Amino acid sequence: MAGAGARGMLSVAFDMTPEHPEFAGLREEFFTNYEACIHQRTKVFPGVDALIAHLSQASIGWGIVTNKAARFTDVLVGATPLFSTAGAVVSGDTTPHPKPHPAPLLEAAARMGMDARHCVYVGDDERDIVAGKAAGMRTVAAMYGYLGTQTPAGQWEADAAINSPLELLQLLSAP
């Protein structure tokens, strides 16, 4: 259910739509519990720590763009020391439009003082690739991620695909 958000999880767990009279209350209860516990079992994918170390050593900036609301993103980023070197953190409610709209990616690039055309966006959902392309960025499908879509990742039209985080270093060094 990763990527489907609270609506997707509550729909499956309670077999109800957002129009159900109890949905809003259950959603807020879920959000409160999620916010309190989000950092307890969350782990980065294997190799992300080494990737970030390499990027930092090479003075290559990186950022986080997520569709999670800031109330969750801020808790998670604050509880994960590895993320302290992110040049930008943009949440799903930072801009008027979440991904697949390009606004969050363009906001991250602007915060980092980067031209979007010089950025690479790595994502594990089709909406990430759509957003990256719309922002004018080079796109990379993270085949090790959640792959939260019904469209096979090979059909997302990403510029490249990687099977582990460290493979990104090879792509970054290629012309």
From TrEMBL:
State if Magnesium is listed as a keyword.
yes
GO MF terms, alphabetically ordered: metal ion binding; phosphoglycolate phosphatase activity
**One GO BP:** DNA repair
- SUPFAM superfamilies per UniProt: HAD-like
Matching entries from NCBIfam families are given as: HAD-SF-IA-v1, HAD-SF-IA-v3
Can you tell me where the transmembrane regions are?
none
Protein known as:
Phosphoglycolate phosphatase
Give the UniProt keywords, A-Z: Carbohydrate metabolism, Hydrolase, Magnesium, Metal-binding
A cellular component term from Gene Ontology for this protein is: cytosol
Q: Which PANTHER family match?
A: PHOSPHOGLYCOLATE PHOSPHATASE
Q: Which InterPro entries match?
A: HAD-like_hydrolase_sf (IPR050155), HAD-like_sf (IPR036412), HAD-SF_hydro_IA (IPR006439), HAD_2 (IPR041492), HAD_sf (IPR023214), PGP-like_dom2 (IPR023198)
